[in-house]
Amino acid sequence: MKLNRSGYLKAMGIDVWTSRSAVAPQVVASVDAAIEAANSPTGMSRQAAATKVETDVAVQIGDAATGEQIPEFMLALFHYETIGICLSLHAESELPRRFCDDVARAMGGNIESVRYQLLKWPMLSTSGIDQSINAAREVVTQKFRQMPARVLVFGDDVGEYYYPLRDLAPLSVGAVGVQTFLKVPSLKGLLGSGSAKRELMLAMHRWRSSEMP
Question: How much is the pLDDT for 172?
Fold first, then answer.
C-alpha cells in the first residue's frame, strides 16, 4: 500500500491540522524521502539499513560537536474562530477541555467549530532531523501565526519557544502584528485558585472591551 504525506505523518504520530508550510522544511524533506523509499519495492529494506547508519552517525556528531539538548514540551492549541487558546502541558496532564470551552465562550468564541492540535516536541524519534531549540521556535512561531487575532496563553514557558511572549507581564495584553495575546503564568495555579480565576475573568473583560468598536 502506497503512503502519502498525510498518512506518513499520522503513522509517525504527528498531529496535523495546519498547512504544509507550518512544518519545518527539514521535516518536509525527510518525510518526502521516507515516502519515496517506502513506496519502492526494495526501498523498505534499504531504508532500514541506511537509517540505522545515518542515525548512529548523527547522534555521535551531534553529541560531540554541540552537546545541544533537544527541548521537550507539549502544547495544546485550540482555534475557536475568533479566539485561540494555547496551553503548556506536562506529559501526565489532563486536557481541561471544558475549561477551555468556557473561556472561549466568555470571549465570544464559537465552541461548536473548535479545531484542536497537540504539538509534541521532539516531533520525530530520530536524530536525522533538526529538532533543536531553534527548529522548535520556528515551528511554534508558525503555529501562532495561524491562530486567531486574539490568543490566550497559559504557561510562562511558552515564551521560550515564541519570543513575543517572553517578557509579557502576567494578565497583561501584548500585540504582535494584528494579533493580541493575554498570558497566564500557570494553568495549574489558575485552576486551583478561585481568586486567580476571578482575576483572569476581569482581565479578559478589559481585553475584550478594549477591542470593541
Answer: 92
Neighbour count for residue 139 (Cβ, 10 Å): 20
SS3 of residue 91 by DSSP: coil
Residue 126 — very low, low, confident or very high, per pLDDT cuts 50/70/90? low
Bridge partners (DSSP) listed for residue 79 = 84, 115
Q: In this structure, how many other beta carbons lie within 10 angstroms of the beta carbon of residue 167?
A: 8
Residue 10 predicted with pLDDT over 60: no
39: Cβ contacts below 8 Å, ≥ 6 apart:
2, 3
> Can you tell me which residue has the cell 551531534?
62
Q: What is the mean pLDDT of residues 18-32?
A: 43
The x, y and z cell numbers of residue 1, run together, are: 500500500
Buried b / exposed e along 178-205 (16+ C-beta atoms within 10 A): ebbbbbbbbbeebeeeeebeeebeebbe
| Cell 524533506 found at | 29
CA angle 199, 204, 208 (to 5 degrees): 155
Is 0.90 topped by the overall pTM? no
* More confident site: 211 or 149: 149
Residue 162 exposed, middle or buried by CB count within 10 Å (0-12, 13-18, 19+):
buried
184 to each of 52, 64, 155, 212, how far by Cα in Å? 43, 38, 6, 22
